[in-house]
Amino acid sequence: MAQKDYKKESITLWGAVGMGTGVMLGAAIFAVLGQVAELAGNLLTFSYIGGAIIAACSAYAYIKMSNSYPSAGGIGMFFVKVYGKGTITASSALLMAFSMVLSQSLIARTFGTYTLQLFNIGPNSWLVPALGVGLLIFAFLVNISKNYFIETFTSVISLIKIVGLAIFSFAALMAAGFSLGVFSKIFLGVAPQTIPSQPGLGLAASFALALLSFKGFTTITNSGAEIVKPHKNVGKAIIISIAILAALYLFIALAVSSSLSVPEIVAAKDYALAAAASPTLGIYGLWFTVGIAILATVTVCIGSLFAVSRLTAMLSKMKLIPHSHLGMKGTVQKHMLVYLLVIGSILTILFNLSRIASIGAIFYLVMDIIFQWGVLKRIKEDVNAKASIITVAIVLDIIALSAFIWMKIQTDILIVILAVILIIIIFMGEQYFLKSYLSKE
Fold first, then answer.
1. N or C: which end of the chain has fewer CB within 10 A?
2. Do 162 and 21 contact (CB within 8 A), yes or no?
3. Does the keyword Secreted apply (predicted)?
4. Contact at 8 Å (CB) between 137 and 219?
């Protein structure tokens, strides 16, 4: 990806859809599906329906903001419009940025985990983080080398991933002897031995993780000024992207559930799709699924690294976050690429997929609640937004976040404490930086 000038109306509607689905269809569906099943049990398919509904309600405010203020700044500029240049804007944008960095680490470890399935090596091997860091370095090199290939063929690559996963799902369903009877058992969740002890709470908590498979729609708003007829097409692109992937994720969840029991999905939660391919499709199915996973993780890693470096560079230029050249030459965005590579590599080495996904989900939901609340209370008339829809989005976010945190407190309280501490550090650090900077000004 090059740090080039943004061209007005250079992206078509379907180009924007390709960009949105390309980012959304990344590591989450490969790495998080097993974690979703661990929370939701036999109600797995409902998790992705719920995630899609929350994403669609949340997207409403982003669409309204993008219609009124189409820009290349995306979420960062939206926060400035809502809250002004202050601690809330800077801290919330950083939560989004760190959520994206965590997604980078999730992508990297997923790449390592799925690649090693070809050699029958488990997810606890040191080779997983080693391959993950290798992918991050590759994505960094592509971004600084002004390689336009991924950017130019985003839509084509997205189509390949969507078609590939659809083929996997269809083949797995057919190989498993799928029928209406099996459908009712999987979809309606009637197998009592696989329903968690707190099904309502577990299902609500699973929405937080399922949402990770949809949150990439915000990437479309980052290119608002570059999309043809942005006032019309940004919203269309977001809704089409969410709809396409909601159908695909539901199809995948059904395919995996038809091939493996919930305990088996949970046991193979870091590589559930690969595990589901082997029993029904054999070695060729495994190779095919791993190939799609590698394609998805590599391309999304490159694009996502560009997006987060763009966001942090913009925040730095607006004097909302600290920045030091550390003797490096080049643009601020290139410097950010270096910082993001280092942070992403550390996270990839230190945390497993479950913990990376958990912190990322908490950061994203907190950020989104702050954004939705700001639009509701400060700017809804200016962007012609309906308060009822934004209120529903906030309520759904709070339900998913609260249930997820409560479940994590019972199973992994350390990660909840860490997430809370990091959020406090971000807000206090930003308040100190901005106060210090303004006093110097």
1. C
2. yes
3. no
4. no
